[in-house]
Amino acid sequence: MSSRPLSPARLxxxxxxxxxxxxxxxxxxxxxxxxxxxxxxxxxxxPAVVNISAIAEAKPAVTGKHPPSPSPGLPPRSTFERFxxxxxxxxxxxxxxxxxxPHNTTALGSGFIIxxxxxxxxxxxxxxxxxxxxxxxxxxxxxxxRLVGRDKNTDIALLKVNAGKALPALNWGxxxxxxVGDWVLAxxxxxxxxxxVTAGILSARQRDIDSGPDDDFLQTDAAINRGNSGxxxxxxxxxxxxxxxxxYSPSGGSIGIGFAIPSAIARTIVSELLHEPDHMVxxxxxxxxxxxxxxxxxxxLGLPKPQGALxxxxxxxxxxxxxxxxxxxxxxxxxxxxxxxxRRLPRLVLETLVDxxxxxxxxxxxxxxxxxxxxxxxxxxxxxxxxxxxPRTASEPPRMSALGVTFSAITPxxxxxxxxxxxxxxxxxxxxxxxSEAAKRGVEAGDVVIEAAEEEVRSPxxxxxxxxxxxxxxKKALLLLLERRGDLHFVELGLxxx
Length: 498
Prior knowledge:
CATH topology of the largest domain: Thrombin, subunit H
Helix content: 10-25%
Distance between the termini: 59 Å
Number of domains: 3
Number of helices: 11
Low-confidence stretches: 18-31, 61-101, 381-394
Shape: elongated
Radius of gyration: 27 Å
Structural class: alpha+beta
Mean pLDDT: 77
């Protein structure tokens, strides 16, 4: 089975940031000699790494001008479609005829034994849709496997084989303790050749490759090719610190940019798949939406440096609301661990069991506060906000503010014009001055201002008062909480002449 390819456009930013990191760190770099040999370590690990053959019945090809695209959503013959086709390739012997008979497809991937009783970890995409899964041990033994459970969000699947004896098993390592620059080993089944070993370093961590909500990948330059999906990534203690799952490659071969699911996430997911009665992952839920804390937002809120996750909205009666978390709070710590950035928070929640009560450190009104939150269980609901009673209609006329925005009180006509909620409260944006900072920041007519400077607003005069108060405090920017079609986000606007 191929490791999943990634869009060049999506990865260019990640690669660029890695190069900048290396350049910045170069003056402090200390050369670390390569191990004389990995042979002793590899000999202990190989028996617990397996090959996986998954057979699925393919549907008949759809007749038409071109064969179906192997990459859903991309038009046939397009540049990106060819990129995906070049990576995945056609089944051997398959022509690009307009009609094709149903046939079985075989995916080859990798996995590793995590329990002597025959439990095996791999990627979900290796066995997705398969009706016949075979695990091939290092000694060539073929064993039929059954699917115990899977988690599509993290692309992890757990299989079970009956070998009639205890099997060699691997241990989890701590991916959080593996440093960028440390040596790592990857073992898998590239191109269906059988067990194969490659070595490299941990290139980066916390990579977002836009594959799902739980993106937090390790990056390595250890060669990872077709068929390595589901294989383990080891530290030099021989412990699993990641599950190899994706690569960036224009051709399908390794160019030194591979990605692995961190063991800090994987071991929690696998434990739930193994031990929960329904063999499903029960995801934690906070009931809030967060956004990035930029340097300017940090300065506006008095935070010494940009860090944490800025709370944009809180679901009614959700765990966050019950804990007292409010929009405008910046979450700096979760369960004793720092929240270094917006994407760090979902990762920490994922590692926490449902119904666990943990401390959360928030930045509010210029100082830290610690709250207690009990993790809820995500049930697929869309987080919603409390709807307030309809505000009184004000007679105050619309006015242009120093922000380059014309604000108005919410009236029945404006509710109809902008399709606002019947109980909407706040101040509506009527117009945005062309070329203004607000326009550049994406503020649009129909946006509703819920808060200004962390305080509710009900009229254009409220906004003018917040601008004056902000200037009086020596601040040069105003933080607005905007709502657009049910979604909330913060926007910071400079105060001209302030």
